[in-house]
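Practice problem: predict the structure.
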Amino acid sequence: MARLRWRGIAVALTAYALRWGRAIGGGAGAAGWRGKATVVTGALSLLLASALPLVALAGCFDGHAWAPVLVCDIDTGEGNRRGRVVELSRTGPGVVGWDLAGREAVNGVNCAASGNQQVRAPWWRS
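Answer:
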């Protein structure tokens, strides 16, 4: 959750900076200000366009699930057990999810949110 908050703050500050540069460039100021604002706005746009794919790739390799991780009662045909699943969809009284220990799709009931979204080690540690 904290990662999303910081990403949101960064996007908001970048959008504000781009808007501020446009306001300076479009105002009644001297032509020199317009040129500088255009350069600053262009540089911020290029920085944003090059940084966002890197942030997205880091999110792919950090080992956290993109969907909720739940602790559920799972029945795989060998008896009930409690296990962690990544929620794929909600159906009836439970969820359909990916069992992290069994590496298969399972039905889970009596689910609760897991406090840990980590599903594997980050790419740079494996």
